[in-house]
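Running this now, will post back.
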Amino acid sequence: MIPTVLPTYNRAPLTFVSGQGSWLVEADGRRFLDLGAGIAVNALGHAHPALVGALTEQANAVWHLSNLYEIPAQQALADKLVDLTFADTVFFTNSGTESCELAVKMARKYWADKAPERTEIITFSGSFHGRSSAGIAAAGSEKMTAGFGPLLPGFVHLDFGDHDALTAAAASPSVGAILIEPVQGEGGIRPVPDQCLKGLRDLADEHGLLLIFDEVQCGVGRTGKLFAHEWAGISPDIMMVAKGIGGGFPLGAVLASETAASGMTAGTHGSTYGGNPLGCAVGGAVIDIVSDDAFLAEVSRKAGLLRQKLEGLVADNPDVFESVRGSGLMIGLKCKATNIDVVNAGYAHEILTVPAADNVIRLLPALNLTDDDINEAITRLDKAAKSVAADG
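Update: finished.
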């Protein structure tokens, strides 16, 4: 008999009833150190007072209006994002998947009148752009697409890091855009080197292509910059954002230059809940905190400390771990043991991590975790690793 909740998740047998900072409390009273942060969503941890305050204040005023009317919290957040980034305009969504849908539509609408044959978008192996029809077609992997055909056409799938294939594909008269994550998340925490991001910008400019960055997982301070592409000193034309921008409240956005967004006129896109007062109030509080230079400097300092200690963890557990990789507080532990075994062992030692492709476990902690949290994380990960080695 099918469960009342559609069984599309392999859930861990854990039920969390409260949280504070980087910690979650299970129904039986156990305290878990959360290094997953809802898969990079709880950027400021659980129950952050500024976010609780922003949500409560807005909830006592008005929850939902409609995009038929002006929404002050939406306008305020859009102004902040435009002021802080390359973008000239912002459309608010509820998720990264919705942001992907609009990014694809925006790129194709841009070319519709200029060169309607330029419908194809270059994407890369190991990518993840959500689970909508456009998102799975963009990623293209059999794991994502099997059983869901016919797929949305118009994507050119290239191997990650194949520069020759990229150069050839970008010259095609049917290609209009390039879509890439500056740091692949689901694909196993694979950063695109800064010189390659610069090369993508140059290649896009050479052929007049739109460059789309998917910063749903790597954005909003996670790498120590407000957005990951800033490390390379370049800008996209369109950027997908979600996860951390709402700090746990469902919120996403598409940021774009005026040129890239030029085809998106009244009636070309919409959302019932996108940009609602509650989400934008919380998002505004998140951005106020995360965009502060001192806060971002602390993210980088903590990332360095965690990375150093993780290198020691790998050295102390050579049968379980192979290497550390990633950027900022978006870290992957490449495993020699089966990554799911390591994640499950973490549950037994009350620490939460997230599996990814390429036999990697992801560490995506709250950006404001403490040094004590970091030390405790290493202790618990070490215990988990040694239990895996003992069972192996």
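The chain has a mean pLDDT of 97. More later if anyone needs it.
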